[in-house]
Amino acid sequence: MAKLSRILVIAGSDSSGGAGIEADQRVLTAHECYTLTATTALTAQNTLGVQAIHIIPTEFVRKQINAGLEDVGADVVKIGMLASAETVTMVSEVLRQHEVPVVVLDPVFANPLWIHLLMNLFLTCFRFFVEVMISTSGFQLLPYEAVRLVRTSLLPITTILTPNIPEAILLLRDSGVSVHDPESLDDAIQLAKQLHGLGPKHILLKGGHLPLTAAWQRSKNIEDASIIVDVLYDGTSVTLVESEFSRSKNTHGTGCSLASAIAANLANGMETVRAVRHACWFVEAGIKTSVDLGKGHGPINHFHSVYSLPFAPGHFLDYVLERPDVQPLWHSFTKHEFVTRMADATLPAEKFKHYLIQDYLYLVSGFSTFSLRVSLAKPESKVHFARSNALAAYKNSTMEGISASAKIVLHIEREMALHLDYCASFGLSKEDIECQKESQGMSFECIASKGSTDQPLPPAKACVAYSRYILDVGQSEDWLALQVALSPCLIGYGAIAKRLHRDEKSVRTGNQYWKWIENYVAKDYSEAVKLGSATSVCPDIEQIFNHKLELLETHMRNVSRNRMEELVRIFITATELEIGFWDMGLKEE
What we know:
Keywords: Kinase, Transferase. It comes from Emydomyces testavorans. The protein is an alpha/beta fold. It has 2 domains: 6-288, 3-Layer(aba) Sandwich (UDP-N-acetylmuramoyl-L-alanine:D-glutamate ligase); 316-587, Heme oxygenase-like (Heme Oxygenase, Chain A, Up-down Bundle). The chain has helices spanning 20-30, 58-71, 85-98, 112-121, 126-132, 144-154, 165-174, 185-196, 254-267, 272-288, 316-321, 327-334, 337-343, 349-367, 384-395, 399-424, 430-434, 445-448, 461-476, 479-502, 514-519, 523-532, 541-547, 550-556, 561-587, and strands at residues 6-14, 34-46, 49-55, 76-79, 103-105, 160-161, 202-205, 227-233, 238-244. A 9-stranded mixed sheet has the order 3-2-1-4-5-6-7-8-9, sandwiched between helices. Helix 2 packs parallel to helix 3, helix 15 packs parallel to helix 19 (461-476) and helix 16 (399-424) packs antiparallel against helix 22. The longest helix has 27 residues, at 561-587. The two termini are 53 Å apart.
């Protein structure tokens, strides 16, 4: 992220986690903002109400604010519950001193649970609320004298004020303006305009206390309530933001969540109308996707649009290989009897020859996947693994990715040269190998005839299945899917060779297969694996497997959960086909 937006939240703490600073932090995290806090009060509360309040000394709050602004700084300050008249005065002074550019003020005068009750009662108890300003459980959240200080000292430096209707009326009546409970949307618009005269640049009057019917008339009962309309006024223009009326009881913390979402959107560069509209949608979705918690009014879901990766950055490969649906297959692949018998030098030579021939054909077939011009090559010399990587280059849209794939193809070419040299030590020439097609039931008849290529044997099931699967993924899926399909081979061979090379039980002296193991821990193969992970060349195989596949790591962070599962399924299938390749070698099928 090029820029990390900074938000200073000055508010009270909600021990239930549904509102206050706790909710603010979740909202800001969901919007990829960095949160600084200055806690004004501690509350003991749950979904049923407030049980106790401990006001933080004003000077300590001042030190919290100064500590944050003098070091990290803030793009936006969001203000919630201030708890005392002294704190209100101090906050207005400090914000002026630091010349904070944007202030979002959510005027918390009373327990939001009481506000929710008022919505259901359609304001029948409003006058009582104004007079006492206490929570349903008897706790006053802001002294009456502090309301005037909010109006006179904070509103003039406020960028956006986000009151609900009771809070708006309270502020206006404190200023001497005669207002009545709004009976229509027009009344609410007029209320917003009157409130703008108190100093804020923008007023967002929340319409939760004035539910409307589908025809935009005041609802007479809960049953015909259909929409909620918030009124945004900037001194000139009125913008109406419509939301669906929710009958959910999980509305605790909606006010502070909305203000924090607006603050985040402004800090992230949105203009005011768009910032407000997106914040309203955010809260609406939070209510719709909420989960019941507690016995009363539960919190909204602040993370409805946040995608959580199932793996920590740098550990995608670990995540995949440790999955229950992958782990046993990976064990079978990397610790297969075929490779175990190579390590202890008990694998019959004829079985290994059969494997060498099929592996060469697979490599050749892969060669031309890097290009769609492979049809020019002879069918017998199409190499599946290189073909697949060539196709990966074709599917990549960046020069860096194309170059990386091309380099892997060149490494495969060198690997094939090593492969042929190694085959020669078993009496297999290039002509001997190429006279065979990918065969099943390999009997080495062609080899025995030393060059007779009259009727090559039919293709081997394992080699054909694997190579065609890779090519099919390359043709029908995207670039990332093809990279995943190629990964078990690229990663697995290196992992197998590294394990066998380090195993003290492996037979080194007189083991005709030891050269094969050494080839796959050599610098050249390490470079190919490293290129497959889109990082700089590193000759240390241990370091390579510590870094894992950075190429996949980077792209896997941007896929959905469903797509992640689809890609893992491709990895599983390719691993199963790798196991089949070893089985083919043992059975000479």
